[in-house]
């Protein structure tokens, strides 16, 4: 009895609290809209055309701040924050925020200790690290009490996907859903990813454009149903997949996810690729997307070929090159002490970080030119005719012995010292191809 | 001898050489023409005000020049002949004219009579001349190229029936002398093509607003609110209208208790400011007089104590906001919206706002090119948009072209380098100018508080880019994305009455 009375009392006071709250918030939001319609008309009109406006999500629903928030400030009698973090978005979009928080994207801001950030800082300088690296990766948001919105000029604006926010959350939803339209359609298009996933070191956008997936997409843009609320491949559209289709969106067999790495089972980023944890389920998830359009044999065949190319890259080039660098470092042969102060470090770096990734990305997403000419061709050329000669220049017995043994004993590398007609005969007979058969067989 | 014969003998006597003859001809003919023109004017035959340029400026000037030539001719004649005046006079005039008489010879009397007539005539003519120079037609057309933009805008302004001199010259001998001296300087600038294009603003020698504006508009007279419905048409096919209705709070605050925009000029208040180079655009600081007589300064953040040249400082009066009360140059969008509202540009033509603006905005080299260009662009656009134009549509198009050309002619003056936006108005806060020069986040007092700049400080909204002009008087509906704004603005307005 007493307990139910208490419960009723609690509910009544809750309702009263909500009633008391609503008009005040509403009035404040009305005031925001009045002024911003004049002062930032573009922003206002974007919001007005958004799904948020349709559902009465107004300024303060995202921008309100609590009194303890480090980046909160009083703006015309209301405590707000300029920065909207995944925590803020997560007040309504709970599942998405949780998935983003657990994703590889969310860790993109932790790059300060990486080789990439080191390079930007020593080779160029801090402004470039801000504009070049942190624009995509996200930087640590610095606060400045003297700034009108408490945000430091050197870290605001920043909408990098792994932004380190003052509230402890990681990421920025507007990296893919730009403010203030927050369009689903935009995030579904390859251009959304193409802000960062392009260029010499990870040309996913270009590989996609080269692939049949990409050119089918551009041919059938109007059949993509991009603005639909529900966007299930095989049900709501079938013309072509975009980045989002394969890596995030729902198919008839798999749920949508905001954990963008969930269907990736190879790491194609490091010098030597490795299978990720839970590689099996990840691969199944990806195959479930493919299966919306492709038969099982087709899908299995693609992964069979792709896996072989990655293993080949690992064994033929990445591991030997990494070993050579390790020997040089072990024997203290490098002339300049700073990382990237020596030619061979650059050759090795571009071998895996640029060319090696291009080869692997090309293979993963069916981009033949990226697999071969921009990829393996460049890897091999620089391996044989830049990395090895540069390593021999140190004239170190241990390094030389390693290289001699590699070129003499490894059937994949022996060709360097053989005669052309003999090699051609081996290709015709299939003998040369035999050396590579193990890459197909392995892991099966 | 008849009077005419005597006059002829007199002028023949004075026409001693070509110079003297020219003098006689000029004086006589300009005098007679003046009389003739005045007669015609009095009879109501001549009604054109521009004739004053000839009657009151040119003819008296020629008359004086002729008068000066007559003694000059005589002097040259005497020098050439190397004789005494008496001898020469005897030669030129009949003996009966130069014969001494009591009270002077007949010639002397003739000269005295003519001199009296001349003085009378010149007095009358210069009175007429001064009066004429006080007419807007003189100001607007005497230096027609320089003044054309101001003249064009003046004639369609709210002050079209107030004379230029009432605001620009003022009363008293001092004002008259300084205006004539300034006028002489401007005449030289115009003669030597040395004037600035466009004419620079602000006009610093303008008389104080207290002496001019307040003759008709005095602060005690402002009261209450003023409603303004603004229509903005869209760039869409139908040029859909959207309404913004403002209830402007324009009281001084002394009568109604609700201070409004004219608080700035209320008897008890004083505001002064310093602007960069006294251009009155970019404010360095603004000060408000406090009850105890001290001044509270709002300056740019971190520049509270920065010294300012004294001639960059100014006490705020009417023209600091009402800087374009007469020579009003429109913004292209506003001009087109206004013509569309009046039906001069026809909304039955698809995309009419978009197309008219497209025709008005290019930087045409001169007026002729603009007239042709505006017509060609609109003709071209509608040849595409309406390949099978009906007679009614053709008529609408022609009306629209005429209206667009008129908008151009009023606002753009290539010869004087007056283009879109040359003379911005300070009466609103377009492009962050006007009110927002002081009312913004950047000017703060010593505590960091900014000059207030709430949207509803100076006006309530009855509609704001809305489908109807009084949308906010209706109850907000929940399926409206702007419901929160609607509710907020409606309550703000309704509270005004309390």
Provide a descriptive summary of the structure in words.
The complex is a heterodimer of chains A (444) and B (498). Helices cover 55% and strands 1% of the residues of chain A. Chain A has 444 residues and is mainly α. Among the domains of chain A are: 184-267 and 279-291, no CATH class; 296-441. Chain A has a two-stranded antiparallel sheet. In chain A, strand 1 and strand 2 (78-80) form a beta hairpin. Chain A is globular. Residues 17-23 of chain A have low confidence and may be disordered. Chain B is α+β, with helices and mostly antiparallel strands and 498 residues long. Helix content of chain B is 46%, strand content 10%. In chain B, the strands form 2 sheets. In chain B, strands 6-3-4-5-7 form a 5-stranded antiparallel β-sheet, with no helix packed on it. Chain B contains 17 helices and 8 strands. The interface between A and B is medium-sized, with 17 and 18 residues.
Q: Key terms for this structure?
A:
A: 444 residues; mainly alpha; two-stranded antiparallel ribbon; 21 helices; 2 strands; globular; B: 498 residues; 4 domains; 3-stranded antiparallel beta sheet; 8 strands; elongated
> Largest sheet of chain B at a glance?
5 strands, antiparallel
Low-confidence stretches of chain A: 17-23
What is the ordering of alpha helices and beta strands of chain B? HHHHHHHHHHHEEEEEEHHHHHEEH
The domain tally of chain B reads 4
Number of strands of chain B: 8
Largest interface: A-B, 17 and 18 residues
Strand order of the largest sheet of chain B: 6-3-4-5-7
How many H/I helices of chain B? 17
Rg of chain B computed from alpha carbons, rounded to a whole number of angstroms: 32 Å
Mean of residue pLDDT of chain A?
Answer: 93
Beta-strand residue fraction of chain B: 5-15%
Helix share, percent of chain A: 55-70%
Overall, the morphology of chain A is globular
The biggest beta sheet of chain A reads: 2 strands, antiparallel
> What is the gyration radius of chain A calculated from CA atoms?
27 Å
Q: Describe the oligomeric state of these chains in a short phrase.
A: heterodimer
- Provide the residue-averaged pLDDT of chain B: 90
Which structural class do the helices and strands of chain A define? mainly alpha
Task: Give the distance, in angstroms, between the N- and C-terminal Cα atoms of chain B.
Answer: 93 Å
Strand order of the largest sheet of chain A: 1-2
Task: Enumerate how many helices of chain A there are, as a single number.
Answer: 21
């Amino acid at each position: 009895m007493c307990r139910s009375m208490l419960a009723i009392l609690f509910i009544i006071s809750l309702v009263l609290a909500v009633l008391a709250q609503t008009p005040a918030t509403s009035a404040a939001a009305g005031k925001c809209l009045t002024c911003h319609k004049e002062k930032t008309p573009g922003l206002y009109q974007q919001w007005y055309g958004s799904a948020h406006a349709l559902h009465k999500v107004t300024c303060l629903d995202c921008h309100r701040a609590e009194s303890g928030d480090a980046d909160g400030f009083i703006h015309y009698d209301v405590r707000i924050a300029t920065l909207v973090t995944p925590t803020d978005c997560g007040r309504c979009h709970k599942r998405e925020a949780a998935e983003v928080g657990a994703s590889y994207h969310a860790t993109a801001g932790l790059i300060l200790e990486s080789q990439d950030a080191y390079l930007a800082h020593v080779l160029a300088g801090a402004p470039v690290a801000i504009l070049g690296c942190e624009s995509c990766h996200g930087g640590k948001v610095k606060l400045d009490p003297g700034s009108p919105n408490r945000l430091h000029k050197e870290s605001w604006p920043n909408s990098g996907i792994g932004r380190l926010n003052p509230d402890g959350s990681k990421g920025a939803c507007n990296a893919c859903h730009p403010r203030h339209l927050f369009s689903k359609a935009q995030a579904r298009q390859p251009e959304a990813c193409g802000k960062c996933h392009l260029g010499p070191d990870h040309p996913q956008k270009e590989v996609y454009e080269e692939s049949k997936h990409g050119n089918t997409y551009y041919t059938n843009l109007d059949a993509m149903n991009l603005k639909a609320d529900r966007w299930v491949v095989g049900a709501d559209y079938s013309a072509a997949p975009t980045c989002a289709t394969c890596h995030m969106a729902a198919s008839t067999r798999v749920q949508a996810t905001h954990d963008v790495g969930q269907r990736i089972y190879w790491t194609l980023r490091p010098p030597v690729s490795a299978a990720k944890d839970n590689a099996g389920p990840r691969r199944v998830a990806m195959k479930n997307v493919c299966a919306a359009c492709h038969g099982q044999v087709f899908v299995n065949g693609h992964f069979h070929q792709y896996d072989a190319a990655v293993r080949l890259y690992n064994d033929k080039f990445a591991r030997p090159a990494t070993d050579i660098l390790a020997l040089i470092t072990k024997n203290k042969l490098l002339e300049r002490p700073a990382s990237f102060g020596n030619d061979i470090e650059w050759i090795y770096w571009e071998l895996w970080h640029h060319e090696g990734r291009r080869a692997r990305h090309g293979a993963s997403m069916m981009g033949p030119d990226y697999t071969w000419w921009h990829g393996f061709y460049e890897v091999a050329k620089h391996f044989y005719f830049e990395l090895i000669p540069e390593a021999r220049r140190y004239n170190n017995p241990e390094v030389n012995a390693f290289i001699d043994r590699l070129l003499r004993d490894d059937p994949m590398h022996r060709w360097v010292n053989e005669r052309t007609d003999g090699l051609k005969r081996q290709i015709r007979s299939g003998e040369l191809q035999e050396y590579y058969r193990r890459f197909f067989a392995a892991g099966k | 001898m008849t009077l005419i014969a005597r006059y002829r003998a007199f002028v023949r006597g004075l026409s001693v050489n070509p110079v003297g003859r020219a003098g006689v001809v000029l004086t006589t003919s300009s005098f007679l023409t003046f009389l003739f023109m005045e007669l015609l004017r009095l009879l109501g035959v001549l009604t054109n005000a521009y004739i004053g340029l000839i009657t009151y400026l040119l003819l008296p000037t020629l008359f004086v020049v002729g008068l000066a030539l007559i003694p000059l001719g005589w002097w040259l004649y005497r020098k050439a002949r190397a004789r005494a005046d008496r001898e020469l006079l005897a030669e030129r005039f009949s003996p009966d004219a130069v014969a001494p008489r009591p009270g002077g010879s007949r010639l002397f009397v003739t000269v005295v009579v003519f001199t009296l007539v001349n003085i009378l005539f010149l007095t009358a003519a210069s009175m007429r001349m001064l009066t004429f120079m006080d007419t807007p037609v003189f100001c607007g057309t005497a230096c027609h190229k320089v003044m054309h933009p101001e003249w064009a805008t003046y004639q369609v302004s709210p002050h079209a029936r107030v004379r230029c001199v009432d605001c620009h010259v003022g009363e008293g001998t001092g004002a008259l002398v300084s205006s004539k001296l300034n006028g002489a300087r401007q005449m030289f600038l115009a003669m030597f093509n040395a004037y600035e294009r466009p004419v620079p603003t602000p006009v610093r020698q303008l008389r104080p607003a207290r002496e001019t504006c307040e003759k008709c508009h005095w602060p005690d007279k402002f009261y209450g609110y003023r409603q303004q419905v603004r229509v903005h048409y869209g760039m869409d096919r139908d040029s859909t209208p959207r309404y913004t209705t403002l209830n402007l709070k324009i009281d001084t605050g002394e009568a109604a208790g609700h201070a409004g925009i004219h608080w700035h000029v209320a008897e008890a208040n004083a505001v002064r400011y310093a602007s960069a180079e006294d251009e009155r655009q970019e404010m360095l600081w603004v000060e408000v007089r406090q009850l105890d007589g001290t001044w509270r300064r709002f300056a740019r953040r971190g520049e509270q104590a920065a010294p300012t040249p004294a001639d960059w400082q100014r006490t705020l009066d009417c023209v600091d906001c009402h800087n374009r009360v007469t020579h009003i140059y429109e913004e292209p969008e506003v001009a087109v919206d206004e013509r569309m509202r009046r039906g001069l540009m026809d909304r039955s033509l698809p995309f009419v706002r978009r197309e008219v603006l497209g025709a008005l905005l290019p930087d045409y080299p001169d007026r002729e090119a603009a007239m042709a260009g505006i017509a060609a662009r609109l003709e071209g656009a509608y040849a595409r948009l309406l390949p099978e134009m009906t007679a009614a549509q053709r008529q609408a198009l022609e009306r629209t072209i005429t209206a667009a050309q008129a908008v151009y002619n009023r606002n753009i003056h290539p010869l004087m380098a007056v283009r879109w936006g040359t003379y911005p108005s300070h009466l609103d806060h377009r492009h962050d100018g006007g009110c927002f020069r002081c009312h913004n986040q950047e000017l703060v007092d010593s505590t960091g508080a900014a000059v207030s700049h709430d949207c509803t400080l100076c006006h309530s909204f009855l509609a704001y880019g809305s489908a109807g002009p009084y949308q906010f008087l209706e109850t907000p509906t929940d399926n409206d994305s702007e419901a929160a704004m609607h509710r907020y603005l409606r309550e703000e307005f309704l509270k005004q009455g309390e």
